[in-house]
Give the backbone structure.
Amino acid sequence: MSYVFEAPRRPTAEVLGGGEFPVRRIFCIGKNYVDHVREMGGDPKSDPPVFFTKPADAIVPTGSAIPYPPSTANFHYEGELVIALKSGGRDLKTREEAGALIYGQAAGCDLTRRDLQAAAKKAGAPWDTAKAFDYSAPIGPIARIEDFPPDLFDDARLILAVNGVEKQNASLRSMIWNVPEIIIALSRLFELKAGDLIFTGTPEGVGPLARGDRVEVSIGPLPSLEFAIEEQ
Ligand code: MN
């Protein structure tokens, strides 16, 4: 095999305690918390979940400063629990089958060009420009499932703060589709593989970011995610 130019390095995410998680794909679920569906003008009872993707190299490690993205005047944060898969499968049936795929969990942020998303929704057009742009997937260190078992998260709250001011604060229990249900649903659409990440949706309280802002996402005992928007 000889590449015609040097192949880019595979994107990775930091693992708590050492090592790098090789990122294959990034799946995201939309409309997964009742109060967020309402704040976006939807009906949580009738709207099915929406899946979309981001490129693997949209990953941004904690501690980074990222540029304010081009072509938007309404750049939003969405704090989310991220699930990292160590193995794959398709057409899964049970919670146990789904749970067996999980390597670990992390705090993440699904950055969104909200104005482009609104235009896409109105036009019935794809969401790629709204969701899948450069630096759109900051993620904190991944905590291995054996160190932080899912039971630990039953009562966990997802809290996102901008410049130290709390903007989102919700229980993971208020997810419409829980983690195994999301994995099962995705496995019926895609053959899941080791290295896939799943952003599991954001609760209510989404809002805009400005140049110079500092964002922190914390979820129960998981290591927090911190990043900033560059001044220029
Ligand atoms: Mn989201």
The longest helix spans residues 114-123.
